[in-house]
Amino acid sequence: MKKQTRVNHPPEVPVPPDNRPVIAPIYQTVKFEFDSVEETGRNLRGERPGFYYMRSSNPTTRQLELTLASLQDRDDCLATASGVNVIAQTLLGLTKQGDHVLCFIETYGPTRQIIRRLLGRFGVTHTMLSIEDLAGIEHALATTATRLVIFESPTNPITKVADIAAITRLARRHGVVTVMDNTFAGLHQHGEYEVDYFLHSLTKYASGAGDVMGGAVIARSELLRPLRAEFPVLGGVLDPHAAFLIQRGLRTYFVRYREQSARAMDIAQRLAVHPAVSRVHYPGLPSHPQHALARAQMREFGTIVSFDLRGGAEAGRRFAEGLTLFARTASLGSTESLVMAPQMLKSRDLTAAQLAVSAVADGTVRLSIGLEDPEDLAADIERALTIAEA
pTM, whole model, 2 decimals? Predict the structure, then answer.
């Protein structure tokens, strides 16, 4: 072969069967081939295992999917390019014109936008209630033919806690599919409940480093089968290098989640007694309205601490700008601490009445607690609170 040909057909380096890599390699390839056209056809018809095109599957991505499924106590998973992407693809894959969706005011903003704008354009209607309104949920499901209910727990950013057992019980009674965004609670929580589809932003706790995006829908294999046919044509594929980085991040997932949750509890307790703070939203505090429910459903209470400053939005701005260890940005779950000021939390798609239900006040601040030293975090927050009160 001429050199110009060699660079496009490099020599294979086979690994003996008894000589395995400790860390699985990154299959950074779009295409796979079989030895014959016949075997290629068998794979495409689902008659034999293997890989053909990265948009459908890839060994690196598949390893991540199986790991995620096992953490959530299910047997199958589909990974996508981002958390919002998996929400959109799942809802598009599960609904059709004329369907009805039950969703909630406290839901993540982009989820509301997908339901109201994207699905709405295709003839999918919705009802939006408060996650606390169990009577309203029961009435809606009993009086309106509903395709699915989508909810999250704890909610973003106020950390309201959904009664998962009650919601899934009502949904099953009326033959309604349940979809739960489980990002805040993490991959190791809520798997014991009869949720049909779990959604996760892998950008958050799964990765942990804040340098890669991904999303996942986790369910029993028979429930994922129709989505597996639709996701490749929607094209929101997770790149294998991103999958590798997320898989690597999972190695420290439990250590990070538990340590960060412990720091969050400490911060929440300190904020609860500070005179500049009128209210702290953290499920681990006995003062949280759904603390008993959170204790019954969760092993750890998460890393998000939201609180209301008495001084309102301007005090929230001064507080956020007074912090030195917290990055003023969105997202959560990474090893560095983050803050969102009131001006960054406002939902522009909600009415005044819905904003009141959401419980996001003029002075609401959201903290995502990282892995910095607890005393350093506490001192930084104390200094910023002093600035906020000035």
Answer: 0.96
For 253-389, CATH number out of 3.30.1330.10, 2.40.50.140, 3.20.20.150, 3.90.1150.10 equals 3.90.1150.10
Q: Return the domain boundaries, the chain.
A: 37-248, 253-389
- What's residue 379's pLDDT? 98
Q: What is the pLDDT of residues 347-359, one digit of tens each?
A: 889 999 999 999 9
pLDDT band for position 111 (50/70/90)?
A: very high
Compute φ and ψ for 150, nearest 5 degrees: -120, 130
Which pLDDT value is given to residue 282? 98
- CATH entry, 37-248, from 3.30.450.150, 3.40.50.2000, 3.40.50.300, 3.40.640.10: 3.40.640.10
Tell how far CA 198 is from the center of its chain.
9
pLDDT of the residue at 313: 98
